[in-house]
Every structure is written in structure tokens, then in C-alpha cells.
Amino acid sequence: MQLFGNLRRGRKKLLTVFNQANYIVGQMKSPASLGEFEQLVLLAILRLGDDAYGVTIRSEIVACTGREVAPGALYTTLDRLEEKGIVRSRFGEATPQRGGRARRFFMLTKSGHAALVSAQRAYQRLMEGLNLLGGSHA
Amino acid sequence: MHSDRMAEWLLSRWTERRRAAAMVGDLLEIRAQKGRLWYWLALAGAMLRLAWRPVVATIAGFYAGAYAFSFFQMAIWGVHVQHRPTGYAWTPVFSVLNGCGAILCLVLVYAAIRYGIHDRLSQLSLVLAALSVPLAWWWWKPPVVAACLASLAVVTLGSLFHRQLRRALPILAAVLGVGFTGGLLTVYAIDRFFLLMAANGHRELLLRPSIGWGIVSLMLITAALMMATCSRLHARLLEKQDPESGAESDSLPAA
Questions:
Q1: What is the pLDDT of residues B115-170, one digit of tens each?
Q2: Which among A107, A135, A104, A122 has a CA at the least distance from the CA of A35?
């Protein structure tokens, strides 16, 4: 009986050490790296706020960048970002103009926000000293 | 509209039904401006992007499993013929090792293509498949067997302390179970229904190619069942939970 008690205490201690190690590693982890298109999608979601779903995200990117976006590329990117925990999605109300289908709205998570800020900071650091935008970053 | 329902059904083969419905809804909204041709082209593009990974992973997984099976057979039985230290007493152990190695290689290739090498299932199957290779190659050297079995125990126990790896373990166990059940049924079917082949060997196979196709079909069905099990359990245990039931605390306030 005492042996079982010791084993249980030992397991508990081991689990605590592992959990602490996991926490420390988690704290040390740098934000997820983002590709160029992923950053465009995240910025579009941020700009749109509560109204960020497939159609509006696509049209926001087209309006801001002039770049035509294939819906398939957008959906797979959004799914990948959600798998990475960078965005979250929720389903809205079904509407008749969509054949009774619900909209899927997207929003950034905290880790997504951190990843985007980190990527933009990297761009800013690279831009420092360059006069690409007519002197504003010189 | 019937065509919209068909589009939704086609997309839902490769993604969740609600996501497929939302995608079709988005495409319907844009169709009003872009036209019907754009709608179908966009749908085909979306389906291609969703489907290529599962399709390539399934084909590559099957080939990897078949290749690994012949590799392990050659490594185990080729050496066995030379050494045969204890007669055929270890035959069941070797058969299990052969099957485990082949199934782990199948899962490794399937998961690495479908979910990427950063996925915990890919990583766990990579380590276990890597351990099974020296075990099969040097099964007659006790220090190698002991080292491999000890590493196997360490990896398995270590996985219990990591949340994602702990969830990957039952997936591997289920795929191994399905693989062995399917493999045993295939062997039984070969014994039961393809007796002609046993009697006349290779000549009968050449005369009646349907026997060979029957065997290949059974193997394909087993591989397909293993990959379906892997995919379903991965979606259930390792992928993100539905956000509607997930952690609210991680969301940002609206911009």
C-alpha cells in the first residue's frame, strides 16, 4: 500500500516537473512565422473587424492590393491559420441570398495578433534606412 | 438550387459540412457579379486545393506501406533463413514486427503529406518507424533489440506527458489494430478463396489474373481503412476544437 502511495506521489511530482517545463518552453516560444499571403489575410481580417468573412476578406485584399485572390487559396489559408491557432471562426446567421447558408466569420486570436505584430516589426526593421516610400521611412 | 447542393456535397467530401456550406454561400454571393463560369471554375479550384493533399497522401501511403512490407520481409526472413537460431518459434513475433513496421511507415508517409512534418502524429510515427528499422534489420543481435525496445518504451512513456503526443498514441494504436485485423482477414481470404493459387502457384496466377487483382483489392481496402481511421481520429483528437465550444479567452476584441 505504501509502495502505491509512493508511486502516486512520484508520478504527481514528475507530472508537475513536466508541466513546468512545458510552461517554460511555451513562454520561450517565438510567435508563429507568417507568409506574405497569410499576413495580407490577417490584415484584411483586422481591417474588417466583425464583418470579416470569405467574400469581404477577398474583396478587401483586392481593393487594397489590386491582387486577384482565388477563393480556394483564401479558404485553405484561412483553414491553415485556424489550425495554427492564429484565427478563430464562428458561423453567423443563414441568409436567403446565400441559399440559406451561414457566413463563416473570422477573428484574430492573441497569438495571431502577436505573430502579425512580430512579422510587421521585422518588415519595419528591414525598411529602416531605406527610402522606398518617398522619405517617410528614411 | 440543385447545382448548389451538388457543389456543397462535392466540397463536403474534403472538408467539414458547415465549412463547405459557408464556402458555397460565399461563392454564390460573388456569382452575382462574376457569373456562372467563374463560379464553377472557383469551385473546381477550391476542391482541387482541398483534395490534393488527401489524394496524394493516400496514394503515397499505400505505396510506402507496400514497399516497407517487402523491405521488412526481406530484412527479417532473409536473415532468418541464414541464421534460424530457434527454428520457427519466433515466427509470430516476426510477423507482428513485419506488420508493425509496414503500418508505421504507411502512417508516417500519409501523415507527413497530409498534415505536415510538424504534426505530432507524423513525428511520433517517424520515431517509431525509425526504431522498427534496426529492430528488423538486426533482430538477431540482442544489444540492438534491447536498445530498440528500451527506446520504444521511453518514447511511449514520454509521449504520455505531452498533450498532443498523448492524443497521437491512440490514433497509432487504432490504425495498427485496423491494419492487423485487415491483414489477418486478407490472409484468411487468400487461404479460403484462393486455394487454386496455393495448389498451382505462380502459373495459376498468370492463367487467372483475377486472383491477383482480388488480393491487391483486399490489400487496398485494408490500406484505405487504415488511412480513413487515421484521418477520422486525427480530426477528432488532434485538430482544433470547434471554436464555438473552444476557448473564448484567446480571442481579441473586435477592431
A1: 888 889 999 999 999 998 888 888 778 898 899 999 999 998 999 888 888 999 99
A2: A122
Which CATH number characterizes residue A41's domain?
Answer: 1.10.10.10
Q: Domain span at residue A101?
A: 36-127
In a domain, A68, yes or no: yes
Asked if the structure places residue A22 within a domain, the reply is no
Per the structure, the count of domains in chain A is 1
Residues 6+ apart with CB under 8 A from B253: none
**A107, B251: Cβ pair inside 8 Å?**
yes
Which three-class secondary structure state does DSSP give residue A88?
strand
* Dist. CA A89–CA B253, nearest whole Å: 14
For residue A67, being part of any structural domain is answered with yes
When CB atoms are compared, the residue of A85, A91, A108 closest to B22 is A91
For the residues of B152-169, what is the DSSP string, one character each?
HHHHHHHHTTSHHHHHHH
User: Whole-angstrom Cα distance, residue B234 to residue B228?
Assistant: 10
* CA B178 to each of CA B182, B195, B222: distance values in angstroms, whole numbers, following the listed order: 6, 25, 8
d(CA A30, CA A124): 18
From the first residue on, what is the mean pLDDT of each consecutive set of 10 residues in chain B (255 residues)?
A: 84 89 92 89 93 93 90 77 61 81 94 91 94 84 89 91 89 94 85 63 69 82 92 84 43 44
**Would the pTM count as exceeding 0.90?**
no
Return the residue in B6, B29, B121 with the most chain A beta carbons within 10 A, the one to mutate for interface testing.
B29
In a domain, A113, yes or no: yes
Cβ contacts of residue A17 below 8 Å, gap of 6+? none
